[in-house]
Amino acid sequence: LKGKAKKLTRDIATPQQAAVLGAGIMGGGIAYQSASKGVPVVMKDINQKSLNLGINEAAKLLNKQLERGKIDGIKLAGVIATIQPTLDYSGFERVDVVVEAVVENPKVKAAVLAETESKVRDDTILASNTSTIPISYLAKSLQRPENFCGMHFFNPVHRMPLVEVIRGEKTSEATLAKVVAWASKMGKTPIVVNDCPGFFVNRVLFPYFAAFSLMLRDGADFNQIDKVMEKKFGWPMGPAWLLDVVGIDTAHHAQSVMADGFPERMKKDYRDAIDVMFDANRYGQKNQLGFYRWQ
Ligand code: NAD
To answer: Which residues lie within the region annotated 3-hydroxyacyl-CoA dehydrogenase (predicted)?
Structure first.
């Protein structure tokens, strides 16, 4: 997959100017990552408060780098200056690539992508950071589906190396190459994958979560499983901790997408730990209560 990604980018210029739709957890992280690696971004949201949060998040990450002596004040100010916040589409006529990171709602995403397509040049590439919506479905709202693909980052963007670049039915090779080039410039490892439920990572992750839930049904203790997987097996964290970080509401939704996509493997006739936690509004780190209590 990595070799394929490299071959694709051989003759493709790295984007000079990018845009991000949505200044939330993911959009803010992507804007920071792109700007700090030298590709300026326009960051659009629908409200000023979210835009401010996105900029503040970037500033916080840059300040950490300053404290560690990795950058100086001039570099910090320079990077911040290359993130241009906007509530409209100003600056979008200049962008080579746009990644959409608004709420995970198919109708909202389709409408936002169609509107964006009408504001950019004909050769601008559009990508979606969706975790669960088929790329070929979102492409239906576009006039130029060949210029569109998935670009799935992981949270937190500045720490997670992988980016899934998802090929829709009509995505062109040039589009994939441009997005691969941008992800590489951001210091990430892009992999090109086909459009299917769960793309690559969630096809591995959700059977793992299912196995974890089955062990809990068998009477195992989640804390012990975490300890073994983290401390003894050497993974960065165990499954319960990971679910708390991902967000149990997010996992609950993704799990249902996986069950619909691969019923023979993923459908179950019982309520598992993710269902129970979700019904109890225990979403993990985001609302301070999941498998663990977060401060
Ligand atoms: P978020 O709720 O933190 O941010 C969404 C942002 O989009 C908000 O600031 C909101 O104001 C803005 N927005 C809504 N409608 C908009 C519009 N029409 N135009 C511009 N901005 C608009 O959400 P998030 O966690 O950053 O997730 C964004 C996307 O990334 C989703 O598709 C999600 O599935 C995907 N994703 C999330 C994660 C994660 O762990 N959070 C990981 C990978 C992918």
So the answer is: 13-295
